[in-house]
């Protein structure tokens, strides 16, 4: 495990009894498919116990209270191909207020949008815009086993299911993202009459056993520039794919020749944990050096102030605050403003 093994205060047993069963259906699936997932299935319960039970988080109890207060009404419907998932049900005004109050207890909401029983969650990011840029370039997701690395609150996981993915596993270490995902999952489960085949694990890519080689499609969107060793991350992604499987990589790039990579002196757009921002040609070279085949750039887009901004559901600073107020093509530190590339490649 990446996290420290030093002793920490234990979470209330009631919290553990609430959280750990969320993963029972995934563990059952992994144990049915012993050959492919045996190594991960053997360690996953311990990983979850360590992250969610042995490591106390000051806000976890409050988030759980918000989640358990969320009404799940009868007659819920949803559309996973809609930009906001279109989750709705015939409910009273009083129940609508309870829904909104519960969802506000899980703020800030960064990835979305969602519409849940009359409540429009206007998230910091218009993640649907990214999805529309990615979708035309994907191999059809129907019946594919998908891994989403750095999945956030799982918005894109729902869109993957909407495109017919057989099962989607997401990894992201944020516990708030997990709570937000489970709130949506409760509604989708009610609409579909069963627990959907989407699972968010509060883990990092490094926690996945090496060389699984089982996933048909692996997504890594908004992760690479946070890694101290981007080549190692690309190798991890390739090793998670079956032979011939598809990698969908979305990351920051900077204008420059082959071999160029920007390394910020300290912060980039107010983020401390940004390490390498390659030119598009350098990014493709990294993919080739990591053993990926047929890497090609399919989209290039400068993030707009409409795509990432503060909202009533995410009241902290956002992209407008991270750019030079006199030149929106520069960050506050004087670097080129965020330019995002999408690369498709095969294992």
From TrEMBL:
Keywords from the named record: Transferase, tRNA processing
- EC no. given is 2.5.1.-
Q: Which enzyme class, named as a word?
A: transferase
The membrane-spanning stretches of this chain are none
Q: Which reaction does it catalyse?
A: carboxy-S-adenosyl-L-methionine + 5-hydroxyuridine(34) in tRNA = 5-carboxymethoxyuridine(34) in tRNA + S-adenosyl-L-homocysteine + H(+)
- Asked whether the UniProt record includes Amino-acid biosynthesis among its keywords, one would answer no
Superkingdom per UniProt: Bacteria
Q: Could you give a single Gene Ontology term from the biological process aspect?
A: tRNA wobble uridine modification
Protein role: Catalyzes carboxymethyl transfer from carboxy-S-adenosyl-L-methionine (Cx-SAM) to 5-hydroxyuridine (ho5U) to form 5-carboxymethoxyuridine (cmo5U) at position 34 in tRNAs.
Output the PANTHER family linked to this UniProt entry. METHYLTRANSFERASE, TRNA U34 CARBOXYMETHYLTRANSFERASE
| Subunit and partners | Homotetramer.
Per its record, how is this protein called by name? tRNA U34 carboxymethyltransferase
Q: Which species is the source of this protein?
A: Parathalassolituus penaei
Protein's gene: cmoB
């Amino acid at each position: 495990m990446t996290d420290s093994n030093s002793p920490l205060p234990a979470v209330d047993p009631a919290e553990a009894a609430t959280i750990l069963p969320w993963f029972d259906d995934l563990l059952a699936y992994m144990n049915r498919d012993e050959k492919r997932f045996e190594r991960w299935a053997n360690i996953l319960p311990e990983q979850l116990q360590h992250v969610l039970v042995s490591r106390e988080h000051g806000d976890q109890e409050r988030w759980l209270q918000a989640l358990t207060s969320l009404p799940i009404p009868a007659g819920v419907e949803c559309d996973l191909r809609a930009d906001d998932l279109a989750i709705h049900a015939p409910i009273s005004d009083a129940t609508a207020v309870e829904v909104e109050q519960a969802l506000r207890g899980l703020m800030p909401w960064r990835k979305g949008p969602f519409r849940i029983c009359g409540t429009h969650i206007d998230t910091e990011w218009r993640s649907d815009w990214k999805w529309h840029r990615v979708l035309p370039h994907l191999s059809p997701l129907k019946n594919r086993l998908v891994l989403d690395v750095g999945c956030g609150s799982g918005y894109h996981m729902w869109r993957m299911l909407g495109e017919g993915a057989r099962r989607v596993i997401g990894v992201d270490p944020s516990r708030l993202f997990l709570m937000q995902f489970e709130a949506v999952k409760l509604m989708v489960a009610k609409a579909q009459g069963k627990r959907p085949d989407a699972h968010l694990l509060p883990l990092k890519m490094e926690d996945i056993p090496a060389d699984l080689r089982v996933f048909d499609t692996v997504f890594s969107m908004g992760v690479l520039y946070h890694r101290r060793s981007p080549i190692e991350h690309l190798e991890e992604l390739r090793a998670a794919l079956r032979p011939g499987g598809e990698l969908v990589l979305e990351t920051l790039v900077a204008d420059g020749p082959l071999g160029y990579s920007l390394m910020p002196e300290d912060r980039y757009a107010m983020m401390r944990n940004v390490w390498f921002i390659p030119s598009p040609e350098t990014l493709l070279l990294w993919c080739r050096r990591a053993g990926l085949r047929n890497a090609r750039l399919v989209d290039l887009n400068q993030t707009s102030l409409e795509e990432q901004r503060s909202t009533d559901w995410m009241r902290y600073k956002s992209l407008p605050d991270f750019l030079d107020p006199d030149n929106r093509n520069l960050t506050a530190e004087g670097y080129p403003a965020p330019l995002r590339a999408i690369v498709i490649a095969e294992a």
